[in-house]
Amino acid sequence: MRRLVFPLLPVLFAAGLIGCDTTAPTPETQVVVEAYLQGGAAMPPIRLTRSVGTNEAYVASETAVRGATVEVHRLSDGGMPTETIGFTEQEPGLYRPDTSSRVRPRATYELSVTTPDGTDLSATTTVPDTISIVDATNTTAVHGAPTRQPSFTITPPASDREQQAVLVITSTSLADFGRPASQHRHSPSVGSPYTG
Amino acid sequence: MRHVRVAVLLGLCAVALRLAPPALAQERAALNGYVRDAETGETLLQANVVVEGTGRGAATNNDGYYTLQGLPPGTQTIVFSYLGYQTRTETITLTAGETTRLDVELAPADLQTEEVVVTGEQDDASEQRMGVDKLPVATITELPSVLTPDVFRSLALLPGVTTASDYSSNLYIRGGGPAQTLIQLDRTTVYNPTHFFGFFSTFNPDAIKDVQLYKGTYPAEYGGRLGSVVDIYNKDGNRRETTGGLSLSTLATRGYIEGPYGGSDDDPAGSYMVAVRRSTLEPLLAALDDVDGLPDTFYFYDVNAKATYDAGPNDDLSLAVYGGQDQLFLRPGDGQEFDVDYGNRTLSADWTHLFSDRLFSTLTVAGSRYASTPVFELGGTRFTQTNEVSDASLKAGVEYVPGDQHTVEAGLHASRLTFQLRSTFDGDETFNQRLQGEQAALYLKDTYTPTSDWTIRGGLRATYFSEGDYLRLAPRLSVEHDLTSSVQLQAAYGRYHQFLTLETSQLFTAFDSWLMTDEGLLPSYGDQIALGVNARLGDAWRLEVEGYARTMRDLFELDPFLPDPAGVPYADRFQVGDGRAYGTEVLIRRPEGRLNGFLSYTLSRTERRFPNINRSEGGTPQYYPPNFDRTHELTLALNYHLTDQWRVSGTFNYATGQAYTRPEQRYELVDSPFSFSPGVGGAQNVLVSPFNNARLPPYHRLDLGVARTGQFFGIAEYELQLQAINAYARRNVWFYQFENESDGTLDRNVTPQIPIPVPNVSFSLTF
Question: Which residues of chain B lie closer than 8 angstroms to A24, CB-CB?
Fold first, then answer.
């Protein structure tokens, strides 16, 4: 009998531990906020929608969150609001700023949303500095050609970080090929690069 | 800080020196020597040596050497045994105050002699250590295998060990990932031991003598990993005669040659071994030339070579090298080229020296290098990502037997590690990170046998790591008690530290990269406990049951939520979490005989917890099971010798389905300036879910094989193997992909693991 009991001990030991399971919370429908601040650009509209269960069909027009209170505060270095911009719903789920203003580069903004069912949402972001292209060479180039690739000289964006990288994305549609080179459009933007 | 380090080192030395040989030893006798294979002269590692009637015994070390002190003088019967070999009994007269050298050779067990092996005497002769599994190479080559025999896939049959999928041979042991297992080849660390993006391990069974797996609570001579150790030793080479082998199979061709050199027939100057393996997919690729998406080039090769030199009765030298490379060249579409080249190199030089019959030493100088250089070309624009790991190390160890109750081992391990990651875009460097760290470890271990039925192993390992200036102490303790001649109880505890982490996709190991601690980024650590019972059930069957529990603290990995690592200090690029694992493993095996094999079952749970993953309503992160968590895993592996020529084998595996992330909510981003989606309005679909909140269907698979052996025109022995992998065509799920349909619903596509029965034919010659 003694021989039988001993092999069972570790089994019981582990089985006891496995008995307690952990479960992650199951997500229910949540409010989704879309707001993209770009330094120097006009304060953009803010879109509020709701997430939908994956077992249901996603119908965009039915997801708008209506009747919410939306505000954006510009914060001082000490984190205190120095400017408040109110937003008003002008299309279902789309809230536009009450006054026209520009987004300040390197400023910190706080978003606050209260939905009619009482859900409070807030988020804070610091807007990256703007860049501008000082010089662009080889603005007409064949993609993949060994020489004459486009290159840009930009103004250095100010930042608290020791090091940062700037991703310049240029895009030219096929329809543009027939136009003079001087009319080619470059769309620079600051993105998330891969340097360290 | 520096004073603390010096004090610890001095303390370790002081403890070592205090274990002086007792005066009593003068009145007793001693016995030592090597245990070898009778056919090849290869040393046998961890073989058992027992003095009959005294309860005294020892195991050979990893150089095949044993020492027994404090034996009663007079005529004694010594029993030598080793798994897969015939037990041998020697009667010898021991003289008081003298040391007798007894080198012994054991003949491999085979069917013809099976019935005459004296099994009754083996009861005293076993020493099965906690959490240690030895894998005979025959098991690797005899069981059915996917395309070619593989060391890691065979290890994964054991309880507590699993792999991520049919396509990955990376080992997940007792709830730890591949980064938590130390993998050594001839005492050299191997950092990315895979071929074909993880499908196979780098270890060629033809070249290997011994595989030791410490699943947990591993002893003080190893360190640097939180979980487990796979310690692999290459063959030294046949010391009796020149032999070789050639094997052709569906995927790979293998060949080896080994033999003695120099000296006389009875006493060669040394031995050598060269084993080469290369994949042979080219005929298959050529036949499928019209199929789109197949690679233009796809091969791997590896070379293992080792030479030993007997520099005298007390000195052995050996030099071992390994080199392996994978090459893939693929044109997935117009203007797209994908060129991946990666491989490992290792070199180790080893000197073993017997200072006296009580003091055995080893010195190893080793280097290991891994390099991966994938190049992706899109419309003439080149992207490269070079990943290099190099490790130069020095290891020195001594084993000292002061008396009949103690065996003391001490050692030093110093290494310099360099990890380099470099990316370029169109010829310009976009990322360059070079990490270098020096590590120094000292260990001291005592095996104390107060009476014949108790063995206590205590150890302490002190490790210093330069990046972050960390000094860590790790105690290890294990106790074994023979309850009866056939039942052994074991308990073990250990603390483990890890200064490295591995970023892995789990899908394609060529892109795995190693990272290390630094100031502000603490080393991971964890405690392990284990309890076990080993029992012999009659002469042929053995039962092993082990329960374990372990913690993992300060686990660090690159923070997936960091939007932009540019300019962020190194330590802040990581997220730090913790984990835990516990389980029970049962192994019933019949190691020898016409029907041999094993049944293994594991009941286990492993969990991780990281900030921002699966947060509760209150914001605290919850534990989740990683992909490799398996609640139940069952393996049956059997080999049956129908006749002397015919053998059938099979393995069956069942496992709980792996955890995956099932989407539960979805939304669309309509205004994103970063969206490249070409759909209506450029909307970006986002799926939301708790991480790993669901399970794939259970995994199961049956592999069958039949083999015939015989004489090949009188010049060689042949073996023809026919195998069917996934014999009943189980479509195990590898992963799901979710796609948005135009009507707003979500569609689930299944990507299976090996979905059909895969035949494998191999023909081997041994001459």
Answer: 614, 622, 624, 690-691, 693
pLDDT of residue B110: 63
Instruction: Kindly list the residues from chain A whose CB atom is less than 8 angstroms away from the CB atom of residue B570.
Output: 196
Nearest CA to CA, how far is B672 from chain A (Å)? 7
Which among B566, B663, B743 is the nearest to A193, CB-wise?
Answer: B566
The domain ranges of chain B are 25-125, 132-232
Over the stretch B438-453, which tens digit does the pLDDT of each residue have? Answer: 999 999 999 999 988 8
Distances (CA, A) of A8 to A5, A187, B51, B129: 5, 70, 32, 19
b/e string for A90-103 if b means 16 or more Cβ within 10 A? Answer: eeebbbebeeeeeb
- The string of pLDDT tens digits covering residues B191-209 is 988 888 777 888 888 899 8
CATH architecture entry for A31-126:
Sandwich (2.60)
- The answer to whether domain B25-125 has CATH 3.10.450.50 is no
No. of helices (H) and no. of strands (E), chain A? 1, 10
* A15 has a pLDDT exceeding 50: no
ipTM of the modeled complex: 0.75
Mean pLDDT value of segment A68-83: 93
pLDDT band for A69, please (50, 70, 90 cuts).
very high
- pLDDT value of residue A16: 41
Taking residues A53-63, report their average pLDDT.
87
* pLDDT at residue A171, rounded to an integer: 61
The Cα B574–Cα B556 span in angstroms is 6
pLDDT of residue B272: 96
Instruction: Compute the distance between CA of residue B709 and CA of residue A103 in angstroms, rounded to an integer.
Output: 80
Q: What is the mean pLDDT of chain B?
A: 87
Which neighbouring-strand residues pair with A154?
Answer: A133
CATH fold, domain B132-232, is Ferric Hydroxamate Uptake Protein; Chain A, domain 1 (2.170.130)
Nearest to B296 by CA among B326, B325, B332: B332
Among chain A residues, CA nearest to B433: A196
What residues in chain B have per-residue pLDDT under 50?
A: 1-2, 4-26, 111-126, 679-680
Q: What is the pTM of this model?
A: 0.84
Instruction: Give the pairing of strands B665-669 and B684-688.
Output: antiparallel
Rounded to an integer, what distance in angstroms lies between the CA atom of residue B637 and that of residue B41? 30
- Determine, for residues A191 and B568 on separate chains, whether the beta-carbon distance falls below 8 Å: no
Tokens of B746: 């979500």
- List chain B residues with CB under 8 Å of A9: 531, 533, 547
Task: List pLDDT tens digits, range A168-186.
Answer: 766 654 444 444 444 444 3
Q: Do B535 and A53 touch (CB under 8 A)?
A: no
Please indicate whether, in this complex, the C-beta atoms of A10 and B690 are within 8 angstroms of each other. Answer: no
Residues of chain A with CATH 2.60.40: 31-126
Residue B511 φ/ψ, nearest 5 degrees:
-100, 5
Reference B220, options B526, B582, B552, B493; nearest CA is: B493
Counted across chains A and B, CB pairs separated by less than 8 A come out at 174
- The alpha-carbon gap from B433 to the nearest alpha carbon of chain A, in Å, equals 8
CB contact under 8 A, A144 and B379: yes
